[in-house]
Amino acid sequence: MYETLTYTGGVHKSEEVKELIEDLGGFILQENILQMELVLNLAIPLEDVDIIKNKAKELLAKVTVAPMAGSEMLLYLQHLQGTICLMQHVIFLNIYVNSVLKTI
């Protein structure tokens, strides 16, 4: 299962965070740079959430849980194309089912 998170921190050393996310088997859903602030929406395996939180603390950044609503999920899936995105479809559906089960 995956957890969706929002990482908010400085642009400085942001490559370390991005590489860590990929090394842990997660991926970046959206990346925004606002002046000197980086905002990442990411999905990470549940067992690795603490690793990301520790890295954020080290870099004086903030990590919050960002559960995705069903409508956001469907809109995102419409934009995915290509064979490599098939894996992302499966992962996103896993995230969606996980977030729905948490509300029951």
Q: What is the overall pLDDT average?
A: 79
- How many beta-strand runs? 4
Helix content: 40-55%
- The N- to C-terminal Cα distance equals 17 Å
Helical/strand content category:
alpha+beta
> How many alpha or pi helices?
4
* Strand order in the sheet with the most strands: 2-3-1-4
Description of the structure:
This protein has 104 residues and is an alpha+beta fold. The protein is 47% helix and 29% strand. The chain is built from 4 helices and 4 strands. It has a 4-stranded antiparallel beta sheet. β2 and β3 (37-45) form a beta hairpin. 18% of the residues are buried.
In short:
With 104 residues, the protein is α+β, with helices and mostly antiparallel strands.
Name the features:
single chain, alpha+beta, 4-stranded antiparallel sheet, 4 strands
SSE blueprint and pairings:
Blueprint (H helix, E strand, L loop, with lengths): L1 E9 L3 H10 L3 E8 L2 E9 L3 H10 L3 E4 L4 H10 L5 H19 L1
Antiparallel strand pairs: 1-3, 1-4, 2-3
